Amino acid sequence: MAAPPLSEVLDEARRLGLLGPGPVSDHIAHAEGFLAEPVPHRFLDLGSGAGVPGLVLAVAWPEASAVLLDGSVRRAAFLRRAVVALALEDRVEVVGARAEAAGRETRWRQGFDRVVARAFG
Predict the structure, then answer these.
(1) Are 64 and 58 in contact (CB under 8 A)?
(2) Phi (first) and psi of residue 49, to 5 degrees
(3) What's the pLDDT score for residue 3?
(4) Do 74 and 13 form a contact (C-beta atoms < 8 A)?
(5) In the chain, pLDDT over 90 holds for what percent of residues?
(6) What CA–CA distance (Å, rounded) separates 32 from 90?
């Protein structure tokens, strides 16, 4: 069975109240603005929320691994389901933790080529 398209996963995020207003296609287009060369080996999406831009970048960069970090238990649970639905679990990890706590852990320090954040705060 093929993975659902990213737009279907983000539609689900909207139904759950995890994605803001506007068409899903606009959210994807905005996230694509984070695409840049060179493609990172490993990136972090800080405050990943519904997975924008993290899921968009993970789909666009099949050679990159990613960590999607969000402090909300509900959003992290959604992200874990989304990663499995999109068949990204071999290279995308979801961390349910606040950034200030995760930043104290040695395994996250200096471990990313790129850090993105759409609306962290």
Answers:
(1) yes
(2) 60, -120
(3) 65
(4) no
(5) 77
(6) 22
Contact status, residue 111 vs residue 46, Cβ threshold 8 Å: no
Predicted model pTM: 0.91
Contact indicator for 95, 69 with CB cutoff of 8 Å: yes
Residue 46 C-beta-side C-alpha neighbours within 13 Å: 14
Query: Which residue, among 80, 85, 119, 78, has the nearest Cα to 67 in the 3D structure?
Result: 80
Give the pLDDT band of residue 1 (cuts 50, 70, 90). low
State which amino acid sits at residue 120.
F
pLDDT, average across residues 58-73: 96
Contact 103, 34 (CB under 8 A): no
Alpha helices, DSSP H, located in the chain: 6-15, 24-32, 54-60, 73-85, 99-102
